[in-house]
Amino acid sequence: MDKASGDRVAPAADETPRLTRAIDGRLLGGVAAGLARHLGVDPVVVRLAFMALSVGGIGIAVYVALFFFVPTEEAEREDDPAARAADGRRKGRDISQLVAYVGLAAGLGFLFLLFGGVFDPLLWFVVFGTLGAVILWQQANPGQRDEWMTSTVGRGKGLMRAGAGVLLVVVGVIGFLVFQEQLQNARAGLTFAFTLLAGVALIVAPWIVGLVRERDAERRERIRNAERAELAAHIHDSVLHTLTLIQRRAEDPREVQRLARVQERALRSWLYQRPADAETTVSPALERVAAEVEEEHGIPIEVVCVGDCPVDDGLHAMLRSAREAMVNASKYAGTDTISVFGEVEPEEVLVFVRDRGAGFDLDAIPEDRMGVRGSILGRMDRHGGSARIRTAPGEGTEVQLRMPRIPQM
């Protein structure tokens, strides 16, 4: 059997594990740990339930039956050094827990003998109070508390445990006082205790509020420091490098202008756009296309876009046609700047690419030149849009692109 077939496959998060006797975390036969995992509860709760049932004898019978009829969890741990090391670390802890549970069982047996049977209500009030105290003690464990507080589900679980523990303690105390006929005498003491606690709360509350506010102020300061560090790193990596390049190429005004525009566009994108927007919406995608053409050909391209919408297949083809128009203007117009205007309307998207360059005769383009006919006119027509080119020799060129919008469901 190969290694892949020998590995255990963990059950899915929403799948109830099979009822098996556990190997990891067991104290005796793995019945309580396996049943707790199957029910999705803490093993401590199952073990305490078995002990409470064992006072009357039924718990032992149920445990023995489950031990013989429930199969053992399949695990191949002999060849896993990490698992053997973990088992060695758990060994001492498991022994101490076993001793604690044995002591708890002995205490329950003593209570059974002291109160004369499981049908004595006073016995069960004592058991409830003790069980609630145990749950509250476990809830106060720092490691488990941190784990429970990491998610909403964990917080709800922790609050439910704390509430159950408090309820059991209150029921146990009140029941004990009632059967001992001491509830009337306890009222004065409880009134004094609550009054004392209220006074202490009034004294301590300002100090606690001050600590909370100080913690919040420190947290805000850490956030501000992190933002300053991020801004400083970005300025160092981009703006300062661009300024250095501008100083080295000060004799070339066109290159200085190009570097300044590239840095301006990058800084605006970093300040005002999310990284995913450049690929999913029209306005940043059009600016990205213009920036790529400008960086490749060195001709400044001014972009103005009004409105925005998600990019679909048709608009993606429109952006590719607009890119081809920008490339043609950069290569053949002989102008110092190119203007791109985009407008997103409810029914369609418009893009205009204009230059004040040499212009050309559209009818004089050879048949084998596909830059205009195939990449602009043909592409827009194939995707349900339209393209119109207005040009003449010496009068510049304007490429108009129109693409209907697909209604968003």
Task: Give an overview in words.
This protein has a five-stranded mixed beta sheet with strand order 1-2-3-5-4. The protein contains 14 helices and five strands. The chain is 65% helix and 9% strand. α2 crosses α3 and α10 runs antiparallel to α12. It has two domains: 177 residues, no CATH class; 131 residues, Histidine kinase-like ATPase, C-terminal domain (Heat Shock Protein 90), CATH 3.30.565. β1, α13 and β2 form a beta-alpha-beta unit. It has 409 residues and is α+β, with helices and mostly antiparallel strands. The chain is elongated. The relative contact order is 0.04. The two termini are 51 Å apart. Keywords: Kinase, Membrane, Transferase, Transmembrane, Transmembrane helix, Two-component regulatory system. This is Signal transduction histidine kinase.
Give the rounded overall mean pLDDT. Answer: 71
Number of strands: 5
The low-confidence runs, each spanning 5 or more residues with pLDDT under 50, are: 1-14, 75-80, 138-154
Give me the side-by-side strand order of the main sheet: 1-2-3-5-4
Number of H- or I-type helical stretches: 14
Q: Residue share in helices?
A: 55-70%
Morphology call: elongated
Which value, in Å, is the CA radius of gyration?
Answer: 38 Å
